[in-house]
Structure formats: structure tokens, C-alpha cells
Write a structure and sequence with these properties.
A three-stranded antiparallel β-sheet has the order 1-2-3. The longest helix is centred in the middle third of the chain and has 30 residues. By secondary structure, the protein is mainly alpha-helical. A hairpin with a 2-residue loop joins strand 2 and strand 3. It contains six helices and three strands. Helix content is 57%, strand content 11%. It has two domains: 85 residues; 107 residues.
């Protein structure tokens, strides 16, 4: 007999995927100054699930892979944000700022980026109202870049950010006659910038 409930395990794995996304967003907001305190509660809830299955002997096959994959994601994320917190506290020199900007542009400043790509993560937007996940990911990039900005930025929540992207997208589509807009958030001379490129959706993959 397994030492765990398979149904409960699947439920916990689904919950933890959501909590990992929340943890990432909250850490980005904390580093950007839009969240007053670090996300200790969310982190504690995830650690609780890690501990819950750490000693279980009945995990096999897919369940075992799911668990260790989740633990690896969590550990990588915590290492990443620990470095970012340290950089924010100590990396005040010109070299540190330049290094952070290079990492961000190369897609290395975020666990979801693509190291070595030479480009920041991009997001294709055609209809803001139907692309809540895409806008949330773009907002994550904004908060992440804001955490390294050399200039203070006005605090902004997801809904306000969504309105900005909606307005910008509608304006570009009308002016350029394009199907969608490809966005990327970059750091340039210590300043956060939103880069937008009109595209034909039929020739681009979201």
C-alpha cells in the first residue's frame, strides 16, 4: 500500500503549480516596491507541501517525477530570488548594474527566460481581454525589471498595467494595420522600457 493518497497528491501538485506562480509574482512585486513585505506566507505554504511528501516511499513513476520536478522548480526559484535580493541590497556599483541589465536582455534574469538567446522574453498580444495569462507574464517582466531600475517607478497594479497595454495595442494595430503586437520589457541605461513591434499574427507564433 502506498504511504500517500494519490487523489490528494494530484490535488496538492495542482495547488503548488498555482502557488509557484503566485510566489514568483509576489517576489517580483516586492522587489519592485509594490509589495510591502516579502511573500513569506506563500513560501511557507509551498515548503509545507515539500515537507509533506519528502519522506513518502510510495511515490513511483509519474508521481515521483512530478514531485521532484516541483521541488527543483521551487529550489531554482528561491536561489534566483535570493540572488536578486542580494543584488538589490549590495549591487549599487556601475559594474553590478551593467551585469544585471545584460542578464535581463539575454533572458537570464528570470527563471522562465531563455539563457543565451540574446533577447528578453517576448509576448504576443492581439486581444488583451482574452489574454489574461500573457498580460500577467508581461506584468511579471515589468516588475522584475523595475526591481533593477536605477530610477523609481510609479507603483502600478495588474489592472492598470492591463489598461496601458490595451490602449497601446489598440493604437498600434490601428496605426499599422497589424494583427498583433509583440512586446518585451527591457532595461536600457537603468531605465525600464516597453518595446513594441507590430506583427502579422498569421506569420508569428504566440
Amino acid at each position: 500500500m502506498p504511504d500517500y493518497d494519490p487523489i490528494e497528491f494530484e490535488k496538492d501538485m495542482k495547488e503548488v503549480e498555482t502557488r509557484l506562480k503566485v510566489l514568483r509574482a509576489e517576489y517580483n512585486q516586492f522587489l519592485a516596491g509594490t509589495l510591502k513585505f516579502p511573500p513569506n506566507f506563500t513560501e511557507a505554504q509551498i515548503r509545507k507541501i515539500v515537507k509533506k511528501y519528502a519522506g513518502v516511499k510510495g511515490l513511483k513513476g509519474v508521481q515521483r517525477f512530478q514531485y521532484f520536478n516541483f521541488v527543483a522548480k521551487f529550489n531554482t526559484m528561491m536561489e534566483f530570488f535570493s540572488r536578486r535580493l542580494k543584488d538589490k541590497q549590495e549591487g549599487k556599483g556601475a559594474y553590478a548594474s551593467a551585469s544585471i541589465e545584460k542578464q535581463f536582455r539575454d533572458g537570464q534574469g528570470d527563471p522562465g527566460g531563455k539563457p543565451g538567446s540574446g533577447k528578453a522574453r517576448t509576448h504576443v498580444v492581439a486581444d488583451v481581454r482574452r489574454q489574461s495569462t500573457t498580460i500577467a507574464a508581461l506584468f511579471d517582466d515589468w516588475n522584475m525589471a523595475a526591481g533593477y531600475s536605477s530610477q523609481p517607478l510609479a507603483k502600478i497594479n495588474l489592472e492598470a498595467f492591463k489598461d496601458i497595454i490595451r490602449s497601446k495595442t489598440d493604437q498600434i494595430r490601428k496605426a499599422k494595420g497589424c494583427d498583433a503586437v509583440r512586446y518585451r520589457i527591457i532595461l536600457e541605461d537603468g531605465k525600464v522600457r516597453i518595446k513594441a513591434k507590430p506583427i502579422k499574427k498569421s506569420t508569428e507564433k504566440e
